[in-house]
């Protein structure tokens, strides 16, 4: 089948940022007295908005997370991203080879999305087709709202939309939106077992590279 729209998640799909930000989150939570490992962040918190992750953190530790945590975490992440963050391997060539309408629908905030798109030279390519669950919808992933919002805004049938995701929450959201979803395992954060977990959540295909995504689309 052909697709009228490709929706890209951002962290781990456009920006190879999950390892960087997850490391910072684990370090900052542990410093607060909420011991958290990198693998725990990668398996439990990736793909969700902070307002949703905060509830998970507090339930896990049985104590509140200070309001200033996210402010400090975001500041450190932005500082390091300005010199360390790179696009996911193969992304640029994939974008340049496709003619479908494309957009971003992410759990991250608009400032974070703009930072990476500017750094990668992709701001004009995505233009005003960048949607944040932190800004545009009430419910974040695994709810389908941000994907449905993107498709509705662009006037595209969800059934003719392909979503590229790297998280279990994102896969669930895309499926609930009635879209085809490819689980991408090309980022530096990927650990053994992620492909199997994405498949178990219902991903229609799991690809370890953007070449594999293109092959799935062109099959």
Radius of gyration of CA atoms, rounded to a whole number: 16 Å
* SS element count, helices: 11
Q: Unreliable segments (pLDDT under 50, ≥5 consecutive)?
A: none
Gross morphology? globular
The fraction of residues assigned to DSSP E strands is: 5-15%
| Spatial ordering of strands, largest sheet | 3-2-1-4-5-6
User: Quick one: biggest sheet?
Assistant: 6 strands, parallel
Counted beta strands: 6
Q: Kindly, what is the distance between the CA atoms of the first and last residues, rounded to a whole number of angstroms?
A: 8 Å
Order of helices and strands: EHHHHHEHHEHEHEHEH
Fraction of residues in helices?
Answer: 40-55%
CATH fold annotation of the largest domain = Rossmann fold
Q: What structural class do the secondary elements suggest?
A: alpha/beta
How would you portray this structure in words?
This protein is α/β, with parallel strands linked by helices and 219 residues long. The protein has two domains: 5-17 and 86-217, Rossmann fold; 18-84, Putative phosphatase, domain 2 (DNA polymerase, domain 1, Orthogonal Bundle). Helices cover 48% and strands 12% of the residues. The radius of gyration is 16 Å and the shape is globular.
């Amino acid at each position: 089948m052909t697709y009228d729209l490709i929706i890209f998640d951002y962290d781990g799909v456009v920006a190879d940022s999950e390892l960087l930000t997850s490391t910072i989150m684990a370090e900052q939570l542990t410093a607060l007295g909420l011991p958290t490992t990198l693998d725990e962040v990668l398996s439990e918190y990736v793909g969700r908005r902070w307002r949703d992750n905060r509830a998970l953190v507090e339930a896990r530790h049985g104590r509140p997370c200070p309001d200033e945590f996210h402010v400090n975490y975001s500041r450190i992440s932005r500082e390091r991203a300005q010199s360390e963050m790179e696009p996911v391997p193969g992304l640029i060539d994939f974008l340049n080879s496709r003619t479908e309408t494309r957009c971003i629908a992410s759990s991250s905030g608009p400032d974070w999305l703009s930072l990476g798109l500017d750094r990668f030279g992709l701001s004009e390519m995505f233009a005003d087709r960048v949607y944040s669950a932190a800004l545009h919808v009430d419910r974040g992933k695994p709810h389908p709202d941000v994907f449905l919002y993107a498709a509705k805004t662009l006037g595209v049938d969800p059934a003719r939309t392909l979503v590229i995701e790297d998280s279990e929450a994102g896969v669930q959201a895309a499926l609930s939106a009635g879209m085809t979803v490819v689980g991408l395992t090309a980022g530096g954060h990927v650990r053994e077992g992620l492909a199997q977990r994405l498949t178990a959540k219902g991903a229609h295909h799991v690809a370890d590279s953007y070449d594999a995504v293109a092959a799935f689309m062109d099959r």
